[in-house]
User: What shape does this take?
Amino acid sequence: MKKLSVENLKAGVKLAKPIVNESGMIIIGEGTILSDIHIERLRNMNVNSVFIEGTAGPSKSREELLAELDARFRKTEEEPYMLVLKKIFKEQIEGMDI
Assistant: This one.
């Protein structure tokens, strides 16, 4: 789950928590997939941020993550199982949407 400002929302994201007004009434329920109309209404209601499903992205670039991976596995590169693990992690990093 990650918190996004309403200004950074895009249609198609799914709410991880319901959006409630000042009196505690649910405005938009948890699990709702937001449309452009939802986002515009949230702006008009002065909602600042919402929680959406997914995880926060990495704070490092792909190149930095790959360099760290190489450094972590440098001492064990001769071990077959460690090479398999390194390959799995490398594929995961390369497939990330950074």
Summary: Strands lie at 2-5, 19-20, 26-28, 49-52. The CA atoms of residues 9 and 84 lie 38 Å apart. The longest strand covers residues 2-5.
